[in-house]
What does this fold into?
Amino acid sequence: MVRQQTPGGAGPRADPSRRCRRERLRSTAAVFTSLTALAATSLVAGPAVAARGDGPCVLTRTAAHHSLGLDTWNPAYPRPLHTLNAVMIFLAFPDSVPTTSPDELAADYFPGTSDFFRRASYGKFALRAHPQRDWVEMPQDSTAYGIERDWDAGRRSAYLRDAVAAADGQVDFTHYDIVYLVADPDAPGVDSDATKVVNFDKPLHADGRDIKRIVTVFEQHPPDRNVLAHETGHVFDLPDLYHRPVDGKGDWDTYVGDWDVMGSQFGLAPELFGWHKWKLGWLDRRQVACVEEAGPTRLTLEPLAAEHPRGATGGTRLAVVRTGKGGVLAVEARSGAGNDESLCTEGVLIYRVRNGAASGGGPIEVVDAHPETDACWDRSVYPPLADAPVAEGETFTVPGEGTRVEVAERTRSGAWTVRITPGV
It folds into this structure.
């Protein structure tokens, strides 16, 4: 019945402050780095073509799980535009008496998760939660389901089937687009590492409606920060951006560090990447600049996380340089506002996007503009990337592609003036 779960769920559970004590990493990419002062007067205006659904900077969607191609939307997933309704069902077990109430658990996630998506979407999407007020009693003890991160498919299927059947008498599933199943966090068989999204090969049925996926929540009380925003991102066809070590040892956050909630729920800058926002429909073609010409292109990038866009379109939020059939370089400005209010370093962030890489396989990788330094060792999930952005007055040449990004200055409104020269 169950086809797949989003690989790795919400990522590692280690306290990020403890990760910051490991040996400092250094990159050999330093030989490609050029950080020089840049005078604002040196910028020369160049062409910037607004990207379209079929434009040269658009990657096609592939068969990869949660592919970051965005020429078409995968209709198997709800698209987060306007309003989606989510039911939150609280599950109790015969072997445990809950010590928290459904109201207390609901407050762990809402309105915080709804606020995250309202800010990320610039008000274009509303996640409306409908927490149930009473516990739903499961037919078996919590220990009977073998709940764990890499869950046995048969036991997981039994858990989901029992939960939907038990809740069906109290919940009319026809009213909801998203289903959250929240287990009693104090039940002895509950493992917080099992929090994830489960997709079905053959949907479950309730109230005459197909249920194609369910978010299973096994968090402790209080839960990890932003964990439900991460899992809900999978419901909208967004991939895991962390790297899961094969042997379970090593660092999980080498791909994107703090820079997107799909990488780490602990991240200092959890705002969704501009590429994700374009895929979801929160950025339109007027806010994405496709840099096609061989010469330099001058742009003014509005901070990605600013909640109140300037003017009717909010200005340019994302610049894209095509690097091959299945890849692009994306460039965006990250400042301490909105979902990024706790970020470590402001500046212009560069990252690679690959449409053929599956969830967990590195579909996005942040380019480190300061490979010989790191930052925020007491807070960052991966300090070597905490200072990845190109800062005001710096120039950086992307290793391999040769694309040069120059950051001149910030405007009075907080936007970043940049010049992008694609590699030859």
